[in-house]
């Protein structure tokens, strides 16, 4: 069986055909909200938008790995719902971080202040999670002893072992990209149908056929509809309002001046478009929460829309803000306390947010940790997606991690990640030893060392804000999961609803370390599934 | 019954509420392709877009007038299909213009060169028409003798006679705005549902209630789907390709570098999305026609997509280009000849394009003209929507028109329109006498004098490219019609399919004369239907 890197792909398009394809792509993006704001108004409120980054061709991805990632999502949902209800385990895992990191501390305190009210009032929690994977070529023994001759920023394997998927991270809070990913995949389906990817047989190299994009090789996703369904189901599960003349509504809590509204709005529109409509209001965090909501005597979260008409009882508080430390000043904390302590179903709770910290991912890699939450078979399948990682603490594994991080020869196979959300602060490869040297040793424990994932060598053409990129690429498959759970007996999570909810697929140039699409590095993409 | 101008509307929103509404509108536009390109690439092909002009509130419109305009559309389809097949009548009406106007002459010659081949090969023609109306307050006798105290640019009537609709013009060629109008109306429905238009009872003036926008007052349109259906039906009516291994496809013939692709692309996507898909390719006029099409020995129009895969037999040539005189240089004429002389169903034919000249509209206002083409009852209903108009020729009516145009007191109630397409060259009111004085009298016959339509005084808030406008507005209702007809016995049009196909509604500031949305004057809107 040929290695995926040996497939000739994408097809060799002339500049003329690429520019034709680009025009098809841009027009599709303009007409389908695959955009990002580039300018937020002057006094007049004028706005402009540009297409968000997308790949010009779907990127190759092994079918079996794709299916594995989708199948495992319900177990990940179950795992993280269980973690979010296990305050004892979480506080243990996060204790160091709560001490040293102001954001973790702030969230923990919000949980402490509200846990009695919130949990008594509302046993249900909604999770919208996204688990991100990369393809990984497991090194064979030859390679482990060979000199490192690969590119300085990405390791590629020439091994012919089957590819694996490795989890990069899991997001349990304010997951973005579901809408953009869905739209980009619809776009690649359209491009394939029109069919702009077809190449005449005469222009193909006879002995080295190009892999054709076929209808069967492009999977579909219904991420937007799935997220809308999960929110609507939670809205229904909330039940009737405490006073029958009042109506219930979902509150989508958003950041002010977000340039990425195209990822949020379609979810809101999807709720309003249901029959009957599920009312969904937007509130900016934290100001609108402080000025347009109140808690009723019995604990309901009430929202007053700015038009002064009516008062709504919030069924689900859908958090699309509150993921940055900077958002949690005094007002931010007060707003979170109001939401968290209310009767509304939180999407998700503060504890579920804390479960997204890298420190938890690292703790789960310890023997027995996953097995605390999942039955053996599920635990084994989840564990198979973990990349080796080490907390840089003083445990036995931690000391082994410190050895690897300080050794320049070993550090080049690793990435150092802070136990914080948001990305953008990772330290890569050869930079790790010096970074640690310049930091007081007591702060090392706030970092996790992960073995670098070694993606296969693949190529594509990307249409980014900075122009067209042709060359080696690295992709990330993000699988969405939605789950509604109930605090059960002995504080265990009892799943009410648990679904794989679609996926987003992002691709970046191989020499860029960050995947952020909003910042202009990553591009939304679609896997072109191949058997290999 | 209260006059429409006496209804308090739109509701008195504070600046804060207007800015909230603006943000709802802009985000909706960004996510639904209600946009216009503002910048067409540098070398990198980067593009930017901005929201197209829309009204912030639906504009009031009498329900009975709205229904009348929709009901009459099938008769207008029938009328213009009949005209497009009556070469004798058309050549008679247009003879002066063909002599004096290079564009009319070019089109006429194309028809002459191709009529034998084209008509023999393909008896079917597809029409996508749009008939534009304004509300008109018929003057009562008092007013006819009163001093003109209205605004210098728009006359408003204080008459309490029922409002009428008057046809501004009918477009039979390359009709735009169907997609934008559809999207804007979907937007107003969404805004009404969320419900951002609601105002608390306490803020309403007790003795002067604001007209509420209600679900029942906002009509829906399915213009995009209707246009797609008509094209798909014509594609089917074309029948199988002349050689069974070939496939048929629709060719959408477009202008290069069009900034208004959001109005075109959804029709193309709608065709591809049908089950089975109706292939629709885009060809830029005229270059792609000359380089990517050929005529088969038996007269089929064959198209070669730029990817070099396949060769398609064109079922329908859908013209979204070729409406400007400037497009008809030598290459443009050759491209039109190829299309017109082929077996493809033309949407529409050159004769149907000639039927859109203002001169035809004026000729129809002559006694007996409509009655030549329609049975008495239909003719009467169509005629009821005509505004008085005069060709400035030497006929009896023409001489009466010249009198009105030269008299400054009478000219102020009129508009002078060239018998050309494209708009933008109209001469209004007091400017007319001097304009005619400066022109050789033999050129007067290229103009038509129309009595100004006197719209009712209505208000709205418009969100244009130039900022927010609050104040008096004038609206235009464009009713779309689709029809497929066959050249019948004795050259009469025999209707195969005839439908009212939705509408677009546009509104502009009352002191602006042009309605063009692309140029930034007009705004897409939705009628808020009222009984009055």
UniProtKB/TrEMBL annotation, chains A, B:
Q: How is the cofactor bound?
A: Binds 1 Mg(2+) ion per subunit.
Query: What's in the GO CC field?
Result: cytosol
> Ligase: present as a keyword of the record?
yes
Q: Which UniProt keywords apply?
A: ATP-binding, Glutathione biosynthesis, Ligase, Magnesium, Metal-binding, Nucleotide-binding
Q: What is this protein called?
A: Glutathione synthetase
As for family, the record states: Belongs to the eukaryotic GSH synthase family.
> Where is the segment annotated Disordered?
140-161
Low complexity compositional bias, start-end: 151-161
**Binding annotation for Mg(2+):** 222, 421
Q: In which pathway does it act?
A: Sulfur metabolism; glutathione biosynthesis; glutathione from L-cysteine and L-glutamate: step 2/2
Q: Which domain of life is it from?
A: Eukaryota
Essential cofactor(s): Mg(2+)
- Tell me what reaction this enzyme catalyses: gamma-L-glutamyl-L-cysteine + glycine + ATP = glutathione + ADP + phosphate + H(+)
Tell me where in this chain the Glutathione synthase substrate-binding domain is found: 249-355
Molecular function in Gene Ontology: ATP binding; glutathione binding; glutathione synthase activity; magnesium ion binding
